[in-house]
Design goal:
The protein is α+β, with helices and mostly antiparallel strands. The protein has ten helices and 14 strands. The protein has a five-stranded antiparallel β-sheet with strand order 1-2-3-4-5. Strands 10-12-11-13-14 form a five-stranded mixed β-sheet, sandwiched between helices. Strands 6-7-8-9 form a four-stranded antiparallel β-sheet. The two termini are about 40 Å apart.
Length: about 325
């Protein structure tokens, strides 16, 4: 759009109140459920709810107009026109106003009397080794919630207090539910602390357990963290709590979003004066480590306990 364009305050308000979930679906974007929000499939760090958006990687967000300006590269007039459906078009429906809610304290979901459904999902559907699942379950880092039978991945602080919980649906039809419990501390997402100098960093708990299944040799000597997204907080907390860590393996997804996150995390490590530490990438052959694992399982390939990951720079 060229030249000066005047919009009334009423037009600006309508554009800024556009429901981003409906707008993005109309643009062909795929959205994933993430608790009360929706996560952008093309960039897992971005969530939307109503007319609000938030970039968890950059730590900032806003309303509909600045979202279109930032993520579609539009000027202010073009963003408003796009949101209002064009001069002759029909405007997208507005979202209901979202009331500011008081932050709730973190509470673990009630635990089911057994974890048969969660155990079956992890070992049969996801092909994760039974001994690996049992090792985390025994430490109460894995359980099944009583109400919805989700797998719950629990993260603890150094004092053994639960600070984080990520839920993953066990239903196999459609997009499975996944999201963090309200009130989580992002510094203490699902992780395992070893004694070696190596930390393996993943996007999701399923990928972390899949990687351990693929490379079981002395796995309990090493440290692992699932960011439950691509935010750096849990990775930096692990490095703070484990001063012996000198090697950081970024084991993120082998897709565009994973590549962007890998580059950003690498820059953060440099900016935090971790230049003396060795930072490298391990890439799955397919999109993520669970896809690698399930493919090997479908081909009847056994998981060797003597197998170690090949360190390959990306």
């Amino acid at each position: 759009m060229s030249g000066y364009v005047h919009f009334t305050e009423e037009q600006k308000q309508r554009a800024n109140a556009v429901n981003l979930e409906i707008f993005l679906s109309g643009q062909g974007e795929r959205l994933l459920r993430s608790g009360r929000e929706k996560r952008l499939a093309s960039d897992h760090s971005i969530t939307v709810r109503g007319n609000r958006w938030y970039d968890h990687a950059e730590g900032k967000g806003g309303c509909a107009i600045d979202f279109v300006q930032k993520f579609y590269g539009q000027s202010f007039p073009d963003a408003v026109t796009m949101l209002l459906g064009g001069e002759q078009g029909q405007a997208y429906p507005c979202s209901e106003s979202v009331r500011e809610e008081t932050a709730k304290p973190f509470v673990l979901p009630p635990v089911h009397s057994d974890m048969r459904r969660a155990f079956a999902y992890l070992t049969r559907t996801r092909c994760i080794d039974r001994n690996v699942v049992s090792a985390f379950a025994e430490k109460k880092m894995l359980n099944e919630d009583a109400k919805y039978h989700n797998v719950v991945f629990v993260g603890y602080d150094r004092q053994g207090v639960a600070r984080h919980a990520h839920k993953r649906g066990t239903y196999t039809k459609g997009d499975a539910f996944k999201g963090n419990v309200e009130g989580c501390d992002p510094r203490y997402s699902f992780h395992f602390t070893g004694v070696s100098d190596t930390l393996y960093v993943f996007e999701a708990p399923i990928d972390m357990l899949s990687f351990i299944t693929l490379y079981q040799k002395d796995w309990q000597n090493h440290s692992y963290v699932a960011l439950c997204g691509v935010s750096e907080h849990a990775m930096l907390q692990m490095m703070k709590d484990c001063p012996q860590i000198n090697r950081i393996a970024l084991c993120l997804d082998n897709d565009e979003a994973g590549m962007k996150a890998r580059e950003r995390l690498g820059e953060i490590l440099k900016g935090r004066c971790y230049q003396e530490k060795e930072v490298f990438s391990l890439l799955p052959e397919k999109k993520d480590w669970n896809e690698d694992l399930t493919e090997q399982s479908s081909l009847g390939l056994s998981m060797s306990n003597d197998r170690a990951p090949k360190m390959q720079m990306a």
